[in-house]
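1st attempt posting a full record on here, be nice pls
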Amino acid sequence: MLVPHWVLFAWFALAALSTAYVAWDNFVQKNPEETVMKWGWVLITLYMGPIGLALYVLSDKEPAPGEHEEFVKPLWKQGIGSTVHCIAGDATGIIAAAAVTALLGLPMWIDFIVEYAAGFAFGLFIFQSLFMKDMLGGSYLRGVRKTFVPEWLSMNMMAAGMFPTMAFLMMGRDMRAMEPTEPLFWAVMSLGVIVGFATAYPVNVWMVARNMKHGLMTSRPKQKARHEGHGGGHRMRWDVTRPQLASVGLLTVLAAVAGVILPAQKVNLTLSADDVDGAIMPPGMIMTRDTPGESMKDMSAIDPELVSYEAAQAARGDQPLEYELDRGVKVFRLEASVIRWNILSDQQVEAYAFNRQVPGPRIEVTEGDRVRIVVTNRLPESTTVHWHGLVVPNAMDGPAEITQDPIEPGDSYTYEYTVRDPGTFMYHTHDHPDRQQALGLYGALIVKPKDEARDRRLGYQHDVVIQLQEWLEREGYTYPAMLMEGGLPNFFTINGKAYPDTEPIRMRVGERVRVRFIGTNNNFIHPMHIHGGPFEIVETDGNSVPEGARLLKDTVNVGPGERYDVIWTARRPGKWLLHCHIPHHTTNENVEEQGAGGLTTIIDVTS
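the predicted structure (as tokens):
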């Protein structure tokens, strides 16, 4: 599940309030605890929020004046104090290192090494040895020697919990968690500290019980003066044998190693924040330890913050595109951008669109026309346009990095050619088309024959384009629908709308309609069926079918990229369905509305 931002900000607000209370109680109300522990509690509560507050109140906050010594005596509370002291320093080093390595674009496996070194170094050299040197006899080097092993054991166990938590959440569905500029990054850090605290707590209880570490203490003015007068600090004699220490040390090392090996079997630790670019993956998508970052970005959702235009609820795609004449050349302009589009009155998707509509505008020209099409890219990624089915000069064909350089964001590219073949064609992106075409970058290209009598011989009164598409929308995010785990579509559209919002075809008995089926979709073969009588196939993929070879059918399989032109005659009055004959494709999120859904429209025939 994707965590809404309001939940994250609510947690941050609770953490801030909890931290403010702990700081006030320690420094203003003067809870009788050592100064280093007071700062430890402030940091822990900052990282752990209300959980840190609860631990403080239950284990260290003096319940009444003069009761602190007795209140903090239980071993479980001493273990909490020891863990706080460790985690406060280690977590600060880890979080700082995580932010820096992410901003530098380092892969996660290097990130873990840097985090471990930074956490251990900050915990040992700053929070343990420096802040506690007076308590340990006044010598910084003596403090380093005395706290090295306890800090190492505790750091190992913290890493055993924090590292896999970070790996699985940062490389999970919402990889904005890898970006320090995103709230989710800091939420993952918070959860990682909570889990790391839990895994480090048992070894800290053991070390307190064996006199290897201090837990909670009581610091009152007379006691402080007495400690300073002796000049020797808190001297502790370890109650542990070498075999015991070695075995516990080995266990903590194994735990820390497992904390890296386990996620390395499930997620790709060679990737950095730059490699995944904050990708949000669809639910159910299977990602493995060798899934490339480019693959993740290709399958990811459109970032809603990139939407530059919200279309009206009733807006329609496939609108005729106007052109300008430049010395006999028809000049068309296409602009690709990120928009928000209604596929149903109550269902929006984010989409990549040409000229702010899905499908893109219909380009209609005549056989023999010279056309110039200027394409401007306002997407967050490069793109191109391919003229599917047309015979054009190779340099104008559109495949990215093969016949042309991709059109980078903010740039434009001009295609110019002479249209030589009449028929039904399409245009679509040819730069990561599995992503971009699935998100809406396609449109119809209709070439009328120069010999108008050719069309008149077909004897139709209505000309209808039917462009098919598949969509994947979950939890408010739109993903490119793909035939793979987690990528299957849950909405289907005709000309950018799902039934009952598809546009009906209105006819009278005896009239004929030319239906141009266009497979602008990426995945399925759609058996398109018309009720009320058979139709005649008159053109396939832009090629006329000779009159003697035409078939009468009531269902035609339209695959991705295919085009079928059929002539259907209105024989009787009524509402006749035009729909895909895969029943799931005539639902919306597997639900029928007003008797159908998805790839369905009505041919409304009156007498």
